[in-house]
């Protein structure tokens, strides 16, 4: 006669999460993805019920990838109720067919490739009777421009413009003056100044023709600022491109300052196109026509004397260099010339090299919602991860874990980026933010991790721009299919308060430094030691490597060689 073993009764214990010995008391059936990769002890009892201590320490989003339920182990009612309310995983092909506007294919966002009529024109409160602004108002708007727009968009020679304006504002061209005031962040009359700038350039005339535009650098600068006003009127870019090609024959002598500012205008023109919708035939044709500048921007003597002058131009050079890499990759995907797409491992090394060139305070601030950070450093990080994720998406099944980590990190940075006061000042910032979030969405659908779909929708809606309403409609429909009616997915990771621990940007290894500077001061009390020979900025806004500009220049020259071979 066989003896039947009596099952041991199940016992439940309340565990104090602050108790150091909790690991001995707590037994879990599954570890979160982060702990499983690190082969660490996970201390979250029920998947989806919170965040484990390891994820809190490294500021990771605690997720559990869906797994099939083991046969013979039925879920309890409590476990069912506490499980995120996500239904059967969606097949990516099903996602593409049901929600075509949310798809990114061959480096192109599908919603940008379909017809949609934006309201390009604002409801202008413009009148021919508008008077010239007072000198006090104009001076205030100029100051606002150079404080809020210039750090992310160094199109103008700040010291020269401010010096001339302080002596006699009429020495500056009217179109440029109006374009500067139009771009000022606190300007309530921006629509009126926009129309005044157009009028001064004869763009409102029915008889307008290209010869009516003065072939001058300030005309080009005015056109670039006017395009940036809503990033929709691509004919401003076409006019700026034509004038830039005519400038050498109209300027008898170019001194260093003018040559540098022409170079920056060329780079801003190129970057504005490179980060735009290259599936648009007009923009793509313009992209093909533009000659890549031979040199990267350099700080002028007057900028070298500014506290953040050299660092600003260095970060801007990083942006324009990334615009070349990004557009080169997208163009290769559009044309199908995959042999010219940058190697993932090579780009990952470059990306890691850039991250290591930052000081630990800046590295921590990239993914912390509380710490302040320079707008161009944050934009660089967003573009690096956007391009990296675009490359990973093409080879998802070989790099799926890296793609998931990058996707979560990119969402955190984009969410911080759009809250930054200088967000709208960065080149094509709104378009790139949406593109990055849609890239993240592709990864979530492929990996069946739907916990951030709602966050992606909310972030897109929070961007103050004429967004395609069809995006929101399809995101809502997608959420309706993914979410059941029982209980909502655990609280949004964007609503969690940042922890005081130092953050791990790459989530691959913990930080080695034990010193954590206070977030209330701009620099640590004791210098943080790094292994690499870096030059420290005065305000710890980042670290500049002596060889960094050489590296960027070599990358740029290599891209030019590849372009000429095509």
Describe this structure in words.
- Residues 31-64 form the Zn(2)-C6 fungal-type domain.
- This is Zn(2)-C6 fungal-type domain-containing protein.
- It is found in: Nucleus.
- GO terms for molecular function: DNA binding; DNA-binding transcription factor activity, RNA polymerase II-specific; zinc ion binding.
- Keywords: DNA-binding, Metal-binding, Nucleus.
- This protein is mainly alpha-helical and 566 residues long.
- The protein has a domain at 27-83: CD2-Gal4 (Irregular), CATH 4.10.240.
- Helices cover 51% and strands 1% of the residues.
- The strands form two sheets. The chain has a two-stranded antiparallel sheet with strand order 1-2. The chain has a two-stranded antiparallel ribbon with strand order 3-4.
- The model is unreliable at 68-88, 118-126, 485-504 and 506-549 (pLDDT under 50).
């Amino acid at each position: 006669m066989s003896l039947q073993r009596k099952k041991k009764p199940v016992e439940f214990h309340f565990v104090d999460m602050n108790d150091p010995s909790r690991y001995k008391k707590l037994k879990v059936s599954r570890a979160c993805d982060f702990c499983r990769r690190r082969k660490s002890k996970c201390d979250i009892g029920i998947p989806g019920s919170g965040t484990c201590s390891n994820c809190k320490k490294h500021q990771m989003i605690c997720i559990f990838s869906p797994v099939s339920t083991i046969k013979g182990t039925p879920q309890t009612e409590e476990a069912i109720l506490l499980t995120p309310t996500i239904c059967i995983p969606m097949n990516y092909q099903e996602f593409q067919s049901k929600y075509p506007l949310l798809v990114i294919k061959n480096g192109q966002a599908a919603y940008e490739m379909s017809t949609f009529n934006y309201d390009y024109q604002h409801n202008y409160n413009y009148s021919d009777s508008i008077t010239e602004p007072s000198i006090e108002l104009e001076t205030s708007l100029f100051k606002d421009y150079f404080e809020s727009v210039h750090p992310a968009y160094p199109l103008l020679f700040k010291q020269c413009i401010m010096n001339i304006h302080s002596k006699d504002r009429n020495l500056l061209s009217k179109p440029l003056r109006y374009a500067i005031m139009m771009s000022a962040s606190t300007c309530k009359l921006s629509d009126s100044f926009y129309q005044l700038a157009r009028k001064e350039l004869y763009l409102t005339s029915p008889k307008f023709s290209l010869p009516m535009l003065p072939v001058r650098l300030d005309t080009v600068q005015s056109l670039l600022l006017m395009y940036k006003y809503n990033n929709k009127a691509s004919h401003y870019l076409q006019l700026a491109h034509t004038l830039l090609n005519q400038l050498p024959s109209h300027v008898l002598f170019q001194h260093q300052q003018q040559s540098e500012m022409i170079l920056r205008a060329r780079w801003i023109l190129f970057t504005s196109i490179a980060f735009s919708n290259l599936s648009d035939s007009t923009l793509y044709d313009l992209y093909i026509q533009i000659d890549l500048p031979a040199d990267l921007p350099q700080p002028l003597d007057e900028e070298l004397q500014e506290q953040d002058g050299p660092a600003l131009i260095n970060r801007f050079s990083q942006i324009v260099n990334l615009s070349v890499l990004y557009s080169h990759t997208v163009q290769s995907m559009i044309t199908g010339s995959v042999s010219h797409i940058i190697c993932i491992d090579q780009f990952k090394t470059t990306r890691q090299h850039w991250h290591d060139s930052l000081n630990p305070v800046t590295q921590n601030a990239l993914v912390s919602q509380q710490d302040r950070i320079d707008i161009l450093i944050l934009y660089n990080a967003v573009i690096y991860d956007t391009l990296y994720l675009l490359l990973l998406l093409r080879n998802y099944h070989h790099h799926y874990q890296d793609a998931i980590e990058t996707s979560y990190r990119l969402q955190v940075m984009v969410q911080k980026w759009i809250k930054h006061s200088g967000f709208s000042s960065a080149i094509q910032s709104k378009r790139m933010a949406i593109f990055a979030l849609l890239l993240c969405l592709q990864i979530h659908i492929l990996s069946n991790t739907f916990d951030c779909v709602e966050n992606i929708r909310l972030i897109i809606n929070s961007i103050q721009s004429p967004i395609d309403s069809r995006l929101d409609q399809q995101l809502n429909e997608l959420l309706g299919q993914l979410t059941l009616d029982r209980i909502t997915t655990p609280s949004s990771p964007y609503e969690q308060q940042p922890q005081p621990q130092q953050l791990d940007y790459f989530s691959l290894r913990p930080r080695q430094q034990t010193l954590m500077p206070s977030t209330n001061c701009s620099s640590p009390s004791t210098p943080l030691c790094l292994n690499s020979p870096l030059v420290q900025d005065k305000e710890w806004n980042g670290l500049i490597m002596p060889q960094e500009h050489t590296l960027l220049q070599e990358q740029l020259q290599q891209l030019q060689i590849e372009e000429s071979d095509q």
